[in-house]
Amino acid sequence: MNKLIIGNFKMNTTPKEFKEYSIALATKCKGTKNDVVVCPPFTHLSVAKEILSGSNVEYGAQNICEEEKGAFTGEVSAKMIKDLGASYVIVGHSERRAKFKETDRLINKKIKTALANGLKVILCVGENLQTRESKQAAIFVRKQLDDDLKGMYENELEGVVIAYEPVWAIGTGKFATKKDITKMVEVIRKEIENQFSAKAAQSINVLYGGSVNISNYKNIISNEAINGALIGGASLNVDNFSVIARENY
Ligand code: PGA
């Protein structure tokens, strides 16, 4: 089964290191049936354009400003990253929600801005440990989806991929069980059906993210309930990431 494999570099590597990485990744990913995407820091996107254009590796950014342009010192717009050939942008990552206080309202605005500029959105949702332990995870994720996708039309959803990333699994080495992932993906699809339609629920891509690595990736990604994975730490090693990207699932 063809999967979508996305690497999230977070704030790691220099543009020079990324150049070497991209050259190796493009070579290693030749002929893979999976869709492969890397999301490096903004400063690396021109390198991505130079090296990855024409390869079968796509690339994206990790964030955008919700505004189109203007007096927003230090921000980067959707149009700017689109101009550098990016196809995707990650929105609502739990690190941005927690450390940069991004609200669902802001995330909703970012999604609309990204889509209006022709970018595909990787929308991250997921509960923290406390919420999971109090058995509120499904309610919590449904509310995130409800707020993040508010006011959107069904046809706009074609540009959205949902990444279920339980916060307690990110960068911790702990990962959700197959049963937990399958159950949450069902919750996500049901919520999309309620908000949009059964057709939209069926066709939307849902990924899993959280401590996917070279030892556990096969078991996690071969789960038929998911369409791929969002990979942080393990994407930084080009050998490991390309093995995951090339796998026949
Ligand atoms: P991780 O990160 O694979 O290092 O857990 C995933 C993510 O934050 O997207």
Q: Helicity level, as a percent range?
A: 40-55%
Strand order of the largest sheet: 1-2-3-4-5-6-7-8
Largest sheet: 8 strands, parallel, barrel
Number of domains: 1
Q: What class do helices, strands and sheet pairing give?
A: alpha/beta
The CATH topology is given as TIM Barrel
Which outline best applies? globular
Order of helices and strands: EHEHEHEHHEHHEHHEHEH
Structure summary, number of beta strands: 8
CATH class: Alpha Beta
Portion in beta strands: 15-25%
Full CATH superfamily name:
Aldolase class I
Total helical segments: 11
Small molecules in complex: 2-phosphoglycolic acid
Task: Describe what you observe in this structure.
The protein is of the alpha/beta class and 249 residues long. It has one domain (9-186, 201-227, 240-246): TIM Barrel (Alpha-Beta Barrel), CATH 3.20.20. Helix content is 41%, strand content 16%. The chain has helices at 15-28, 45-52, 78-83, 94-99, 104-116, 129-133, 137-148, 178-195, 198-203, 217-221, 238-246, and strands spanning 4-8, 35-39, 57-61, 88-91, 120-125, 160-164, 205-209, 228-231. The chain has an eight-stranded parallel β-barrel, surrounded by five helices. The protein is globular. It binds 2-phosphoglycolic acid. Residues 8, 165, 170-171, 209-212, 230-234 line the site of 2-phosphoglycolic acid (PGA).
